[in-house]
Amino acid sequence: MRVMNMRILKTPAHKYLFLISALGILFSTFLIKIPQYSQMDWIIIFSVSGSILILNYYIIQMPPKGNALSMDSSIYLASLFLYGLQFTLLVLCIHSIIFAALQRKIAWWKHLFNFSIYSLMIIGAYYAFIFTDGYIGDIQINNIVPYLLSLCTYFILNLLLVGLYFIFEATENLVNFFKEFIKETIATYFSALVLSLVLVILMKTEELFGLTLFTCIAFLLSLAFKQHFNLFKEISEKANKDFLTGLNNHGYFKEIFEKEVATAKECDQPLSLVILDIDDFKKYNDLYGHIQGDQLLQEFGALLKAECDAANFIVARYGGEEFSIIMPNTNCDTAFSFMNELRKKANDTYIKGVEGLPYGCLSFSSGIAECEKETYSISELLNKADQAMYAAKNQGKNLVEVYNEHSEYSLQRSLSLEKDLEEAEHQLKIFLSKDVYTYRHSKRVYQYAVDFSRVLNLSDHERKTLILGALIHDIGKIEVPRDLLNKKGKLEPHEWETMKKHVTWGKEIISTNKKLEDLIPLVELHHERYDGNGYPYGLKGKSIPKLARILCVIDSFDAMTTERPYQKTKTFQEAIVELHECAGKQFDPQFIEPFITMIKQLDHSGEELEKELVTVS
To answer: What is the pTM of this model?
Structure first.
């Protein structure tokens, strides 16, 4: 059961706690009637309660996530199948009283809530067993249905009773919670059923000996699994940790970063990334040797870890003297303040030999980039943080720089339009021999992008990226069969699925050229729709990169207004009407009016523009 902090009873979550606790106590009080048990019966009752206490302490931990398998549910179910409801509720009551006395540090209401949940689960499982003709006191393997339904009831009640709390508390996404809960516990609960039947068989022959044997086996399994889990944890940590500094290594950092970015975008929370590099580390190595250089890395890593752990940030050694920090739920302003304070602490931290460095102290340069809703990939964020870090280096080192796409360093590292246009044009001419339509379409979309980029408030880097992306956005169609590209009439469903793959093939083609990596979102995502019904990923709204949303408008307009083998051509006026109708559905509405205004300004009637485009083609 997760730990919960009791506050006031006015919140829905704590009203729910009170209700469940009251129901559990009420039903238990009504159903527990102590008959005249024999001395042997009481011995068994206390023995079963003692076994549950022992097995609650010695749980079985299972890698990789450390999920725990407690045997208490197996014992409760076995007791239910063998002795009935009153006996089992009495066991639960005795166990809960002893456990509360031993664990006095746990708040009383938590003990009460746990008791009530188990009561309701046991009662529900019992009546599911009885109503399906289950027989108390003997095991009947030929009639397995009552056992399965009893377990399912036990499991579903646990799922609902725990899940509803987190729904009322609003700390968990409803769908995600149930998906994770079921995925992580369903195997555990079926194990509990099998083990409960094993225990019934053991106790049916010899009650105390069977219970003792089961408890001993569970205890030994717990020790064995604990050793196995600790060994697994140790090996995993070695695989995920940098040997020298003890920080997360590069590979594990990338794995964590992917998950954190996905979480930040899904929950619409800020996230910042920092790349930092120790200033003049090579000079330090040259002065004092690599052994002392390693010592500096270790001490600097320890400083980073202490500061980041205190702030709940995730730090890793990125490579060499470079380090990276993931800052969940942190915007770039907060990240800047943290890094500036960290920079000052590093300056004030004496490490042997740093007085020989240019600043006479330990210093670093760092770059910060904040994840945005439309951030395409972790590579994009890493590149931005890296650019900002190099800007800090270029400005004299010992600085913290926040990425700004309008800054000078960003422009310096942006695409060289003329040279890259020439390379892209060369690649595009391959279409001439295979699909003249796609070549001409790409040229027209390119011309629209040139004109539209002047209308929009884009940075130089964005403008160049949009223009280049427009030129080669359909390059993946090189991989589409020629007969499919030139087919007359409507495409069959399987043919359309093949056609849609051109965005993925296009991404693969340009991914081989590092200089063109900024174009990947435009090539891969220009068929995503604002309403989430596009492809290949079904991204929605601002989660689609801005330039891909712009290109979607341009590309669709040209596709509507020029002849296609499988689609009727629209007039400019018809296409403008469709742009209006699809604003907020297929297209980002903020770009529709500026684009239509541009089209009308280029040619009010549309006829001269059509002639001009044919000439350009």
So the answer is: 0.57
